Amino acid sequence: LSMSAFHKKIVKEKGQKPDALELTVAQALHEIETNTQELQAELRPLYLVAAKEIEVNAGKKAVIIFVPFRLLVNFHKIQQRLVRELEKKFSGKNVVIVGQRRILPKPTKKNNYKRPVSRSLTAVHSAILDDIVYPTEIVGRRTRVRLNNSQLYKIFLDKKDQANVEGKLDTYSAVYKKLTGKEAQFLFPVTTD
Description:
Layout: H1 3-7, H2 20-35, H3 37-43, E1 50-57, E2 60-68, H4 72-89, E3 94-100, H5 121-133, E4 138-145, E5 151-157, H6 162-165, H7 169-180, E6 183-187
Helix pairs in contact: 2-3, 2-4, 5-7
């Protein structure tokens, strides 16, 4: 396998070199593209910008793959199959695909510019939440303020996907905490029949 072949699968900002994990993910993407016929056409134009590995809980790890925001829709089209293939390659690790977004500071008197709502901290954190749980839909959000003033976000996911994502709820919480610094608990709404 030539080095340049899978180097096309990772595009870093100028002057930055990909680390070992990012090269491994890029190589895995390239292998899936060449070996999996039904994903070949969709995967060809896609690439990642960064990858991180985080500890979820004792011995369990997850890989976060950051992709360019404008390619996120293309990743969503094949995300379920792609994540399944990537999780086979990274045995025992959950894989989460998140769009690379930029948060702009609040406009002040010094830097008086128009900031799009999509670049505000709240909007970016909300979008990250949607990316983490994709393709499962979020059906409810609650904020619980504890006695010590810390906040816990309770995120309710669509019950129809419970069988598929029940084992990943810890991963979702750990990834959200790592990316935003906020604590979130992922649940399924309890329905009384």
